[in-house]
Amino acid sequence: MNAPSMRLFFALRCPTGLAERIAEWRDGQRLSGRPVVAANLHLTLAFLGQQPSTRLGELRGLAAALQATAFELRLDRLVHRRNGLLYLAPSEPPAALLDLAGQLHLALRTAGFTLEERSFLAHLTLMRRCSARPPPTCPTFDWSVGHFALLASETSQRGGLYQQLEQWPLLPIR
What we know:
Layout lengths: L4 E9 L2 H13 L5 E2 L6 E11 L3 H9 L6 E5 L1 E4 L5 E4 L5 H16 L13 E5 L12 E5 L1 E10 L2 E11 L5
Antiparallel strand pairs: 1-3, 1-9, 2-7, 4-8, 5-6, 6-7, 9-10
Family: Belongs to the 2H phosphoesterase superfamily. ThpR family.
Enzyme class: hydrolase
Function: Hydrolyzes RNA 2',3'-cyclic phosphodiester to an RNA 2'-phosphomonoester.
């Protein structure tokens, strides 16, 4: 009998207050498309796709072993792709963010997990299927990142819902 599987990813969950401010700004732009609900705003570190639930312990151990430092993240760039994806990104991704994603990707590949081949792109998706032209500038959103999490994506009648399975602290900034 096969173990049940889950759609998993590691991410930085956007803090509630910041997520609400970002969603409020986005909604005020009156763009057409499919907005990401505030509770789901996150920055994906590594997407794992469908994984057997029997591997959760391995993923938890792998994440707990990482030695990455907390950092300040500044989302100051609004990007609209031709495929309708609208997202916020840092003009200069912090070295600690790139280090965290790099450590995580290496540990996952070493453990035999298959990851997408494309390079890591630090971004927070605001909307899908955005057909309208967004404003040329956006406010700056600052975020003190002190932990990362393992999330499961579940589909419901209301759309996707992300359930946090566990989170791990990052080392204090020196």
